[in-house]
Amino acid sequence: MSAWLAVVFFTWLIARNSQVYFSQPRAHGFVSEKGALADDPLWMAALVIHVAAGILCLGSAFLQFFRTVLRRLPWLHRWLGRVYVASVLFLLTPTGLYLALYAHGGAAGTVGFLLLGALTATTTWRGWAAMRRGDVRGHAAWMLRSFAMATSAITFRIAHVGLQLTGIDPEVGFLTALYLSIAGNALAAEWLLQKIRKPEMTKRTRTRYHDENHHPVPIRPRPS
């Protein structure tokens, strides 16, 4: 629960700090340091859409992993899922890939953000495709991976600020935070999936090899 509360808090914080992008974008330090690029209407439009899509993506996602919502409000789960998938595939990822071409950190920064965009789009697509073919477990697993990539926006900012406090070179800190957030979130998703699957495997094993009174049932050899 504490992890989800942290996601809610940082999503709110990102949304709050991003308001300036919609009212006075040039007043934001990120835009002002881009220099002449800030005068490019295509780049500016991509940035504003990317920020809005990120907020929409995170805001629609955090309720999706509560079983209460899935069981009692399946219609809400479906509609929030559609909002999430649409915002990722049609808004967040395309604009993110374009912005990555002008990312801070040179070629390493561009590669990092392109990788993040590709992973986010791929995991989201596979999660949507799994649900379309009725693979509920596959859907849940891929959407968890997708959400892990989406929340790298949060972990990246935390890591970036933390590294800045150490006095590390700003560019090195930026790139380190970027790749740490991608790798760390991906590993965290896989760890969580293994943690979820382990009780399921134990339950299936108990059901297969024990009777209703939990007494061992001899395994009969298969006929040759």
Any descriptors?
224 residues, 78% helix, single chain, mainly alpha
Structure description:
The protein has 224 residues and is mostly helical. The chain has one domain (2-199). Helices cover 78% and strands 0% of the residues. The chain contains 10 helices and no strands. Helix 4 runs antiparallel to helix 6 (74-100), helix 7 (106-132) packs parallel to helix 10 (170-209) and helix 9 (152-165) packs across helix 10. The longest helix is centred in the C-terminal third of the chain and has 40 residues, at 170-209. It is globular. The model has no long low-confidence stretch (mean pLDDT 86).
Please render the helix and strand layout as text.
Elements lengths: L1 H16 L1 H5 L5 H4 L8 H21 L5 H6 L1 H27 L5 H27 L3 H15 L1 H14 L4 H40 L15
Structural class: mainly alpha
Mean pLDDT: 86
Radius of gyration: 21 Å
What's the helix count?
10
Shape: globular
**Low-pLDDT regions:** none
Number of domains: 1
Span of the ends, CA to CA: 51 Å
Total strands: 0
Order of helices and strands: HHHHHHHHHH
The percent of residues in helical segments reads over 70%
Described by strand count, sense and barrel closure, the largest sheet is: none
Hey, roughly how much beta strand do the residues contain? Answer: under 5%
